[in-house]
Amino acid sequence: MKMKVYWVYKILPAFVFFTERFIPKKYQVAVTRFFICVFVRPNHIHQKCFIEHELTHVKQTYRTLFLFPFLYLIPYFRFMFEAEAYARQAICFGKKEYVHWFAQELIKHYNLNISYKKAYNKILNYYNRFRR
Ligand SMILES: [Zn+2]
After folding, report:
1. Is the pTM of this model over 0.85?
2. In contact, 30 and 41? CB cutoff 8 Å
3. If pLDDT is split at 50, 70 and 90, which confidence band does 77 have?
4. Is the pLDDT of residue 44 over 90?
5. Domain-by-domain residue ranges, the chain?
6. What is residue 70's predicted lDDT score, i.e. its pLDDT?
7. What is the crossing angle of helices 75-93 and 97-109, to 10°?
8. Distance between Cα 57 and ligand 1 center (Å)
9. How far, in Å, from the CA of 132 to the mean position of ligand 1?
10. 85 alpha carbon – ligand 1 mean position (Å)
11. How many whole angstroms separate alpha carbon 75 and alpha carbon 128?
């Protein structure tokens, strides 16, 4: 199994594994598990930007002093965490249109019970903030 160490906040490690293991659903390309481990399907196009999304979750893990997986269970936090990660991913893809696409993902797959407009605005907010 191929593995690569990435660094978040310059000094904190994230372990990225290229494997089909631990990635549950068909639509998912990558997942963050066990706090600082990222699992990415090998051979997926745009892999770099999916890793960028997951590394955001690793940052959130460090930032919340490892409370991330527990906070993630609460829709309010899940929404914030995912909007931030999708904003990073949209920036990585280099097109603002992805904000629209990811807003749809967010309302479809994350059990959040929010409107498209709310999802779109939240991602766009992070997107504009990070792009500066
Ligand atoms: Zn995510």
Report:
1. yes
2. yes
3. very high
4. no
5. 2-70, 74-131
6. 96
7. 150
8. 7
9. 22
10. 6
11. 23
What is the distance of C-alpha 92 from the center of its chain? 12
Give the angle subtended at the CA of 107 by the CAs of 9 and 100, to the nearest 5°.
70
Categorize the per-residue pLDDT at 24 as very low, low, confident or very high, splitting at 50, 70 and 90: confident
Tell me, in angstroms, the distance from the centre of ligand 1 to residue 30's CA.
8
User: Residue 39 has which token pair?
Assistant: 């699992």
Q: Tokens 């498209």 correspond to what residue?
A: 116
**What per-residue confidence (pLDDT) applies to 75?**
97
Is residue 98's pLDDT more than 70? Answer: yes
Residue 60 Cα, ligand 1 centroid: separation in angstroms?
Answer: 11
Q: In what order do the strands lie in the sheet with 2-8?
A: 2-8, 12-18, 37-40, 30-33
Residue corresponding to tokens 């979750």: 57
Average pLDDT over residues 33-61: 90
DSSP string, 82-113: HHHHHHHHHHHHT-THHHHHHHHHHHHHS---
User: Of all helices (H) and strands (E), which one includes residue 39?
Assistant: strand 37-40
